[in-house]
Prior knowledge:
- There is one protein chain.
- By secondary structure, the chain is an alpha+beta fold.
- Among the domains are: 151-242, Herpes Virus-1; 255-475, no CATH class.
- It has helices spanning 13-19, 41-47, 57-61, 84-96, 103-106, 149-156, 221-227, 231-237, 267-287, 295-299, 365-371, 432-439, 446-450, 461-475, and strands at 2-4, 7-9, 119-121, 127-129, 187-188, 195-196, 204-205, 217-218, 303-327, 338-362, 375-388, 390-401, 404-430.
- Strands 9, 10, 11, 12 and 13 form a five-stranded antiparallel β-sheet that branches. It has a two-stranded antiparallel ribbon with strand order 1-2.
- Strand 1 and strand 2 (7-9) form a beta hairpin.
Amino acid sequence: MAASEGKISYASLSNLEKESKFTYVDDFDDTAWSAPEGNNSEALNQKVSYPFPVDSEDFMDGGYDSGEDQYTPAPRNGPPEVNMKNVLSGIFAILTGRNKDHPGLNSLPQLPSSNVSFLGSAKNGETVLHSSVYIPSAPPLLEQNAFNYNAYKEVLEAEPPEWLPDSSTTVCMQCNAPFTALTRGRHHCRFCGGIFCRVCSKGRCLLPAKFRERNPQRVCDTCYDRLDPLQGVFINTISNAAQVAKHDVMDWTCSRGWLNLPIGLSMEHEIYKSSNTLRSYCQVSRLKPEMSIPAAVLKGARGLAILTVVKAGVLLGYKLGTGLVVARRSDGSWSAPSAILSVGLGWGAQVGGELMDFIIVLHDTKAVKTFCSRMHFSLGAGCSAAAGPIGRVVEADMRAGEKGSGMCYTYSCSKGAFVGVSLEGNIVATRMDTNLRFYGDPYLTTADILLGTVDRPKAAEPLYAALRDLYSKLRC
């Protein structure tokens, strides 16, 4: 095997056998070794040599000890003596960073490295994965000529089972534990129809097309092992994210387009609400440009969080609402959406009630990473005024979560009868169950969604169309 410039050539395997100095020894052969004629020990040493390092601890523990073998030990520096002085000086070097410039570190032998890199640099200086990492190299599993199609054909073409009655068994069909009312209830496996306890049916998977189920369903452990290799196929074909958006009319002919509800029960509903919010904002900014978000703020946004929140109270105001967040990728496109929930309190000189459509501008990557947290807090101050169908709310708040902290600017259109100036505190949480029902992937995290490793779902096309309309007006 030849190595040059960090690349390995496999075409020289035949030459390796000729140039090798070692003879293959079959340790599994039960036949006795044939001693060479004349019992010449020098000939034996020339034919068989062991490429083990003499100073290897594993080799010495095996009991091999021969003082007759001639070898030249490789010169090397032994480990430093362990004493209190060396330990204290080593800790001091680590704390002060002086160990990075140790002269002995640069003299260590370097392994040959490959010149293949999966990392690249974006225009803003951030390090990103190369686009080829996301391109699947295997053929689609659902095609007849695809790899391993026959192995999974039985699962792909499975029919919905007939569920067993609850009275069929009094124990779990896997662990044989008796059922109880509170601690070990009955659960049907959606794939095989058997009855199992909660412990033996924890997994949730997307089911084949004939089941006509787009949400992940509870299955037993055995069926989970059968369905898990096919989840990538089902996510791209059966999940809610892969479907075409059905509700995309937002004008006066559709009653749901008149008013956004504060609570959305599904990601599809959140996509519709956010698209309707962006459309309404475009109308308001066209009629009253002085009340719109500054173009420079929108152009520099690294992400947008769009929510519909209801607020009511006197002196102490309560807020509740849901929405979604999208991030700007390095190439200028938008990421897949992630569902969020907002709960908050406000204290100040305020009275009334209002329904607000928020647009939170995330002006840097730190703010986007804040929304990648499972839960984060925000604290800010703002003023609100609403009288009838049109009102305005402007806030600036600081947000902090487990993934980081950042500054955000909040703009909104509100409806109702409300006036006040208050100090606002909010808790924003990622709706993991909503993301699971929409994408169908239980291993998907919010960072995967917002930082661009997830393809843009087909069901979110109305949202991307509204974003294109919003930013097209900025270019005019």
